[in-house]
From TrEMBL:
Protein's UniProt name: Glycosidase
UniProt record similarity statement: Belongs to the glycosyl hydrolase 130 family.
UniProt keywords, alphabetically: Glycosyltransferase, Transferase
InterPro entries reported for this sequence: Glyco_hydro_beta-prop_sf, Mannoside_phosphorylase
Length: 379
C-alpha cells in the first residue's frame, strides 16, 4: 500500500478531555489511554462518520496501596473503586486481574465511551468532533464502559453494535439511528461475551444477518486429524428485527491448525455486498507477545446464502501494524503489533478501511478494489 493511502487520522492528542462525559463526576486527573477501534459509516451529507472508542484512564491509579478503577453508577454517576494492590495482577496495561476469586475476575484500567468524529468524504480532513453526541454509559450493564462500535446501514436505518461491560454481564448492545449521527440505545441483544457482532449491510431473504464471536474459558478438542484448532470461531446468526437473534447451527470460520491466526479470530467489519458475494474483513491473532499480534484478513460469503464460505484469504494479511504511522505518538504507545479493523465503506474504485492501531489511534487505509479481485468500476 502506498504511504498516502494509509494514515493516522485521529489520536489521543485530538481529544479534549474537558468535554469528556467523565467530567460530571471524576475530579481526579485523567488521560486518554487510546482513541481507537472506530466504527465507520457514510452520512447522508456524503461525509464519513467514525465512532471512536475513547479509553479514559486515571493519571495516578495507585494510591494508599490500592489500584483504582473508574465505574459509572446509575444513581451516583462516575466513581472510582479501590482494589488492594497486593491482590491484583497488573501486568496488562489495559486490565488488571483480581486474585482470590473462584472465577477469573478482571477490572479495567480505563472506562470507554464513544465519540462521533465527522470526516470529509475522502477521510482526509476532520470536519467536526461531536462531543455533544458522545455515547457514554446509560445502564447498569455498562458500568465499566461502552466499547468497539460497528455500524451498518440497512434500508433507511443505521444499526450500531457495541460491547457493554459490567460486573453484571459482558454483553452486546444495539443502538439505532435515522440519520447516522444521533443514536438511541435499544438494549442488550446478545447476553454473553461477544465483542465482535457485525450486522450485514442488507437483508437476506427478508431477515437481518450478523457475524458473532462468542467467547469462553473452555473449548473442547477437535479430533487429532481435524484441520481446525479449538478456540473462538466466527459464527452466523439471523433475526427478524435486529433485536432477537437465532444462531446458525454450524460455525462459519474457524481457526485452522498451522495458520498465523491460531490464537484467536474474530469479525472486523460489517459484511458488505459485492459482485463476488459478501466481503468481510476479520482479525486473526498470533501468539508470542502479551496480547498477541493482530492482523487483518478477508473472506467472501455467498450473496444468497452467507452460511456458505466462498473463500478465506488468510495466507497473506491485508493489513498489519505499521509502527512508523504512530512514531509521533511513541511516548503514548503501550502495545505494539496490533491492527484491529472495525469499519469498511465503499468509495467508488476503492474501499476506505478504518482500524484501531496499537489500541492507540484511528488508522484509515484506502484499498483499491482489484486487491479483492473486484472490478474498480463496480461493487
Amino acid at each position: 500500500m502506498i504511504p498516502e493511502s494509509d494514515a493516522i487520522v485521529f489520536s489521543p492528542l485530538d481529544v479534549d478531555l474537558s468535554r469528556s462525559p467523565l467530567r460530571s463526576g471524576i475530579s481526579r486527573k485523567t488521560y486518554v489511554l487510546g482513541a481507537f477501534n472506530p466504527g465507520l459509516t457514510r452520512l447522508p451529507n456524503g461525509n464519513l462518520l467514525m465512532m471512536v472508542r475513547i479509553a479514559e484512564a486515571l493519571q495516578q491509579p495507585v494510591s494508599a496501596n490500592e489500584i483504582h478503577a473508574i465505574r459509572w453508577d446509575p444513581r451516583q454517576g462516575y466513581l472510582t473503586d479501590g482494589h488492594e494492590l497486593a491482590l491484583v495482577d497488573a501486568s496488562d496495561p489495559r486490565t488488571f486481574r483480581l486474585r482470590g476469586h473462584s472465577s477469573k475476575v478482571m477490572a479495567l484500567t480505563s472506562l470507554s465511551w464513544l465519540l462521533p468524529v465527522e470526516l470529509d468524504p475522502d477521510s482526509l480532513e476532520t470536519i467536526a468532533i461531536h462531543y455533544e453526541k458522545a455515547i457514554a454509559p446509560a445502564a447498569s450493564y455498562q458500568e465499566y464502559g461502552v466499547e468497539d462500535a460497528r455500524i451498518s446501514k440497512v434500508d433507511d436505518t443505521w444499526y450500531m453494535t457495541t460491547c457493554s461491560v459490567s460486573a453484571e454481564r459482558h454483553s452486546t448492545t444495539l443502538y439505532t439511528s435515522q440519520d447516522g449521527l444521533n443514536y438511541g440505545l435499544q438494549g442488550i441483544v446478545l447476553d454473553h461475551q461477544n465483542k465482535d457482532m457485525l450486522i450485514f449491510e442488507g437483508k437476506i431473504g427478508g431477515k437481518f444477518h450478523a457475524l458473532t464471536r462468542p467467547l469462553g474459558d473452555l473449548y473442547f478438542a477437535y479430533p487429532p486429524a481435524s484441520e481446525f484448532e479449538s478456540g473462538p470461531s466466527i459464527n452466523l446468526a439471523s433475526s427478524p428485527d435486529a433485536l432477537h437473534w437465532k444462531p446458525a447451527d454450524t460455525p462459519l470460520i474457524r481457526p485452522r491448525k498451522g495458520s498465523s491466526s491460531v490464537m484467536r479470530i474474530g469479525g472486523g467489519t460489517p459484511p458488505i455486498r459485492t459482485s463476488r458475494g459478501w466481503l468481510m474483513l476479520y482479525h486473526g491473532v498470533q501468539p508470542g507477545t502479551l496480547v498477541g499480534t493482530y492482523r487483518t484478513f478477508h473472506a467472501f460469503l455467498d450473496g444468497d446464502d452467507p452460511s456458505s464460505v466462498l473463500a478465506v484469504h488468510d495466507s497473506r494479511p491485508l493489513l498489519e501494524s505499521r509502527p512508523e504511522l504512530t512514531e509521533h505518538l511513541r511516548d503514548l504507545r503501550y502495545l505494539e503489533g496490533v491492527v484491529f479493523t472495525t469499519g469498511l465503506v465503499d468509495a467508488g474504485d476503492h474501499f476506505i478501511v478504518a482500524s484501531g492501531e496499537d489500541d492507540l489511534a484511528c488508522r484509515v487505509t484506502r484499498i483499491p478494489k482489484p486487491e479483492f479481485g473486484l472490478d474498480p468500476h463496480g461493487t
